[in-house]
């Protein structure tokens, strides 16, 4: 990657899953190892950016040089991101926040003798939609879309609905792409209609391609 080409920019990056408690021992979550988000943070640090990594629970080591912010629930991730966005230039949301949470959290462990627990679910807040509504002039917002079919169509819809500048679409049903693995195969879709289909590559290289695209979009916007 280019040397220090992101110096002067503050990136907020989300990674990993979030978890929503059902009772003191059980939770709802989404699949995510955190590898994609951590790779983005690592490459951004290497290229000279200031990086805040807002991370759900993962088994990964902290990224040296990044400011680590550890969160558990989607609401906590939202507050962390809102806090960090006060002086940030770019948000890249690679996390897989839990989309649903129990309306009521049982304070005691639910016992099998009590029968099946009734789980009434509600939606968690949408981090990207909230942040993009409150965005300051000059802030760039990048989302991911994890799809299992019609990836480009669903990705384009999320790009528009969440008010993003760029969306990184991955078909998580493809071998070597999506969760857990060290590689990913993504399609970059921009607000202006560009479609960039990247081959399967290491997540660190995917990260570099995304960062370079963000840098390019920002310099085009600033008329450089
Ligand atoms: O962590 P890895 O194991 O390396 O796997 C990487 C990954 C597959 C998790 C990653 O590449 C990825 O696709 N992340 C997005 C997962 C996801 O939640 O996708 P989604 O299509 O459900 O959400 C779309 C976008 O909205 C995402 O940017 C997500 O961060 C964001 N979102 C989702 C829910 C929510 N409540 N708030 C959000 O902001």
From TrEMBL:
<comment type="function">
    <text>Catalyzes two steps in the biosynthesis of coenzyme A. In the first step cysteine is conjugated to 4'-phosphopantothenate to form 4-phosphopantothenoylcysteine, in the latter compound is decarboxylated to form 4'-phosphopantotheine.</text>
</comment>
<protein>
    <recommendedName>
        <fullName>Coenzyme A biosynthesis bifunctional protein CoaBC</fullName>
        <ecNumber>4.1.1.36</ecNumber>
        <ecNumber>6.3.2.5</ecNumber>
    </recommendedName>
</protein>
<keyword id="KW-0436">Ligase</keyword>
<keyword id="KW-0288">FMN</keyword>
<feature type="domain" description="DNA/pantothenate metabolism flavoprotein C-terminal">
    <location>
        <begin position="6"/>
        <end position="215"/>
    </location>
</feature>
<feature type="binding site">
    <location>
        <begin position="125"/>
        <end position="128"/>
    </location>
    <ligand>
        <name>CTP</name>
    </ligand>
</feature>
<dbReference type="GO" id="GO:0004633">
    <property type="term" value="F:phosphopantothenoylcysteine decarboxylase activity"/>
</dbReference>
<feature type="binding site">
    <location>
        <position position="99"/>
    </location>
    <ligand>
        <name>CTP</name>
    </ligand>
</feature>
<dbReference type="GO" id="GO:0004632">
    <property type="term" value="F:phosphopantothenate--cysteine ligase activity"/>
</dbReference>
<keyword id="KW-0210">Decarboxylase</keyword>
<feature type="binding site">
    <location>
        <position position="162"/>
    </location>
    <ligand>
        <name>CTP</name>
    </ligand>
</feature>
<comment type="similarity">
    <text>In the N-terminal section; belongs to the HFCD (homo-oligomeric flavin containing Cys decarboxylase) superfamily.</text>
</comment>
<feature type="binding site">
    <location>
        <position position="109"/>
    </location>
    <ligand>
        <name>CTP</name>
    </ligand>
</feature>
<keyword id="KW-0479">Metal-binding</keyword>
<comment type="function">
    <text>Catalyzes two sequential steps in the biosynthesis of coenzyme A. In the first step cysteine is conjugated to 4'-phosphopantothenate to form 4-phosphopantothenoylcysteine. In the second step the latter compound is decarboxylated to form 4'-phosphopantotheine.</text>
</comment>
<keyword id="KW-0285">Flavoprotein</keyword>
<feature type="region of interest" description="Phosphopantothenate--cysteine ligase">
    <location>
        <begin position="11"/>
        <end position="224"/>
    </location>
</feature>
<keyword id="KW-0511">Multifunctional enzyme</keyword>
<comment type="similarity">
    <text>In the C-terminal section; belongs to the PPC synthetase family.</text>
</comment>
<feature type="binding site">
    <location>
        <position position="158"/>
    </location>
    <ligand>
        <name>CTP</name>
    </ligand>
</feature>
<feature type="binding site">
    <location>
        <position position="144"/>
    </location>
    <ligand>
        <name>CTP</name>
    </ligand>
</feature>
<keyword id="KW-0456">Lyase</keyword>
<keyword id="KW-0460">Magnesium</keyword>
<comment type="pathway">
    <text>Cofactor biosynthesis; coenzyme A biosynthesis; CoA from (R)-pantothenate: step 2/5.</text>
</comment>
<comment type="pathway">
    <text>Cofactor biosynthesis; coenzyme A biosynthesis; CoA from (R)-pantothenate: step 3/5.</text>
</comment>
């Amino acid at each position: 990657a280019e040397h220090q080409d992101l110096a002067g920019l503050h990136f907020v990056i989300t990674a990993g899953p979030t978890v929503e408690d059902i009772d003191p021992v059980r939770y709802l979550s989404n699949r995510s190892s955190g590898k994609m988000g951590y790779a983005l943070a690592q490459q951004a640090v290497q290229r000279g950016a200031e990086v805040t990594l807002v991370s759900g629970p993962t088994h990964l080591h902290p990224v040296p040089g990044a400011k680590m912010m550890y969160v558990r629930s989607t609401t906590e991730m939202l507050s962390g991101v809102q806090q960090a966005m006060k002086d940030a230039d770019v948000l890249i949301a690679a996390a897989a926040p839990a989309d649903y949470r129990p309306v009521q959290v049982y304070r005691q462990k639910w016992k099998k003798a009590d029968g099946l627990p009734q789980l009434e679910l509600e939606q968690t807040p949408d981090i990207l939609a909230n942040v993009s509504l409150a965005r300051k002039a000059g802030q760039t917002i990048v989302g991911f879309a994890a799809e299992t079919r019609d990836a480009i169509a669903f990705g384009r819809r999320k790009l528009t609905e969440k008010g993003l500048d760029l969306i990184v679409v991955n078909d998580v049903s493809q071998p070597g792409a999506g969760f857990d693995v060290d590689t990913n195969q993504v399609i970059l879709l921009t607000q202006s209609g560009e479609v960039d289909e990247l081959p399967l590559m290491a997540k660190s290289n995917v990260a570099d391609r995304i960062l370079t695209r963000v840098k390019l979009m920002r310099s085009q916007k600033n008329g450089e």
